[in-house]
Give the backbone structure.
Amino acid sequence: MSSHPTTTAHPPWRGALGQGLRRVASLAGFLLRWVLPLYVATEILVRTGALHWLSGFLEPVMGLFKLPPEAAVVVCAGMLVNLYAAAAVAAPLNLTPEQVTVLGLMLGIAHNLVLEGAIVRQLSDRYRRLTLLRIGLGLAAGLAVAWML
Amino acid sequence: MDALSQWGPALWGAAGEGLILCAKILAILAPLMIGYELAKAYGVFQRPWPRLRPALGWIGLGPGSLVPLLAGLFLGLLYGAGILIAMSDDQGLGRRERLALAVFLVTCHAVVEDTAIFVLLGGSALWMLGSRLVLAVGLTVVLARWWKRPGG
């Protein structure tokens, strides 16, 4: 990373502010395009009972983490897509603060595995093992905290 | 079954709640993103921060991995990827050091953003962030010791 000496008299904060605002605008676009529709879709699936019906078979597994079966969708969204997707799906579920903490820790460690895996690959050739480590560590940490809280 | 007439208001309500969630996420992250650009423009990330070096050695990392570590820790793997990969290459980090860096960062990165998203939903920052930090430091310390053992 290098600083960019500019020939114009603009102070550095101007360019930085512009760049920052562009990042914020692109995040806003992302949130509106993905998080908002996902939130509404989940709300519909929750209200119709479809989500409960679909995820019912996962009750024994999710119960280990003291989570409702519907939270399996949050875990999938977080691990495969990202934490914004997970939050959009988790918000309509009316989870307790403890349950949000368990999900936040699990997914904090293991999220966006496909895209981030591609970046880890550039850092270390053991990226496959590192991704398995994230999944194992995330699940173990979630399990431990679920029973500690 | 709900009457069909209830669906319109319910959908609008959900859309409103979804918008509020988006606005909250944006309100937390906008100052961070602009702050990061300002810090970058004023060269904060180019300072070597020598006081952190002993701590780095403890987790098996050399001084060259400080900037990539900070980039990943605060910006995350995706936003920080440019700095992370470029600096790791520039500083000539060895294979082991890159692996130690990767182990730390896959466990714990984007600490502000990731934590903020779930704090908004009611999660405990202490548990979510504290556990990740402890695990990341613990794993890298174990790895550093493993490499230092005779024959390692």
